[in-house]
Amino acid sequence: MQMAKKIILDLGQISVSKTREELIKSGQQKFQAVSVEKLTAYQEVKRDAVKIIEAVETGLIPELLPLRRERMLQNTFSFYRGTAGLMDFDLANQVHTGIPVLICGDAHLGNYGFYASPERQLLFDLNDFDEARIDNWENDLRRLLVSVYLAGNENGFKNKKLSKLLKKVSAAYRAAITYSGSLKLMDRFYLSPKVQLLAKIVREQAGGEFEKPLTSVIEKATKNDLNKVLRKFTTLNADGHRVFIEAAPRSVRVSEKKMEQFKAAFSEYRATVPESVRVLLLQYQITDVIRHSVGVGSFGTRCYLLLLTANDGSHLVLQVKEALPTRDSFIPLELDLDLHREIGEGNRIIKAQKIMQAASDPFLGSLSSGQRSYYVRQFRDMKGSFNLEKMDWSGYKLYAEVCGLLLAFSHFHSPTAPMLQGYLEETVDFDKLMAKWAVRYAQQVEIDYEKYKEHVSH
Fold first, then answer.
1. Which InterPro entries did the record assign (predicted)?
2. pTM assigned to the model
């Protein structure tokens, strides 16, 4: 069956030739056409959640589905994390501003974390771009707000407090849009989410209440280096060679045929990284590969770890993750996802990540193997995240607001962002109405969760 080729991450959609003032005015005109009241008028969803989830599952590894379902059914927030495609389907039927920016596509609270810049500075920002695409900016904000409500519920925070927090997160987003719009273009380009900035916000707004958990996570992230990865995930075999440790079904050594496929695709990957990294990688060869599943939403997709051995006997571990097409309303539910697979999906993800992050993993690249597309990054190097379940109210509140601020910074990398600035300048009850929409959708997630739980139990 021949499918029309879809342009993946067409940056022409956000390429503009207007001045900032003209773009702001255009955003104000968008507001006249789509008021906040229209934008936040909740459109009842009409679909079978279980059917949509099952359509996604058909493209996953069958033997991992029981573990995936177990992870999704831990609580409502876990279910939400694992059903980005379901929300994409629902968002396609909501009202939109018609202002396109490059969005993360899955900006929930759990997709923010620490990582290292090429200069080995610790940064904190959005760190998952599997669903990245050009779309309406409000889709990201909606995804974030609903996650704040659901994760907070799991922590036992009261609904009234969470509803107020949603307004504050929305307000933080708006304030950061205004601030970004006030900067000159190059100043905005060099704006970096360094941990020092996060620590400064913490000291100013929360004092010592949040300082301890922040310090703890920073220390943990900085200790997540290659040596720790090698100690935890590898061992020496009978021949004295370093290999990965198997732990089926989550971690399984691949066949010789699969390993040879990755070796053949390695030169393609090298062509997608900076020249300095490319030259470095010429001194490594792949010596072991395992399929290793991670996360919730990605669990069940084809994820691998590559063990590279250098000519001096040292090692490097890279993570290779399957890049599926974005699961939105353009993909008919009755069709297999494979029919819509594009070899360029991995490139879409790394391109979006490099644009939306102030600095990215220097090993970030892509490759294709066995008619599937993948993106590549260094595994667990200086990476870390907060444990949302262990946060007290003051810490959770601040964390959520910081995520709202960082989301706005990410959106303002798009040339069309001044339109968003113009739209928000005209709003009055935006925070209250957007929070109300998020609470209503969170209730739908809870309904879907119960239906899916019932489905799995039968």
1. DUF2252
2. 0.87
